[in-house]
Specification:
Hydrogenase maturation protease; aspartic-type endopeptidase activity; hydrolase; 5 strands
């Protein structure tokens, strides 16, 4: 194992709560080991696969909309759980994370370990800032991601 750890904040800060992923990546600066790759993506599958190329552990931070969720609710999902969400619910993007993971699997490019930490959205309107529910959930979401990064370096 090379030990390469990549954290990808998926989203668009100009679309309300969809900016949660990039906000967590920014909050992680200085809180995780320096050799952790912290990056942001719009979620386009080919770019995602390029971002995690060669990584042993990938942590994806994503905005999520489920039918039964409430804004600010946090989720930790395995790739299998992401794949099990109905189309359009596991992401706020045109091509969702489930499609990205399916492509990675088909191409043999899934990392050894991948986990998704997500927050349930309230509003993804263009130009809106983070909702109060999501803003309030960001410290715990950031803590969860930082803990997962530490676990990756400890080998668990």
């Amino acid at each position: 194992m090379s030990g390469r750890v990549v954290v990808i904040g998926v989203g668009n800060p100009l679309r309300g709560d969809d900016g949660a992923g990039p906000a967590v990546v920014e909050a992680l600066r200085g809180r995780v080991p320096d050799d952790t790759v912290l990056t942001v993506s719009d979620g386009e599958p080919a770019r995602m696969l390029d971002l995690w190329r060669g990584a042993d552990t990938v942590v994806v931070v994503e905005a999520l909309r489920t039918r039964s969720g409430r804004p600010g609710e946090l989720h930790t999902l395995t790739p299998e759980e992401v794949a099990g969400h109905p189309a359009g619910t596991a992401s706020t993007h045109a091509f969702g994370l489930a499609e990205c993971l399916a492509l990675a699997e088909a191409l043999g490019r899934l990392p050894q370990k991948l986990v998704v930490h997500a927050v349930e959205v309230a509003d993804v309107a263009l130009g809106a800032g983070l909702s109060e529910a999501v803003r309030s959930a960001l410290p715990e979401l950031t803590d969860r991601v930082a803990a997962r990064v530490r676990q990756a370096y400890e080998g668990s």
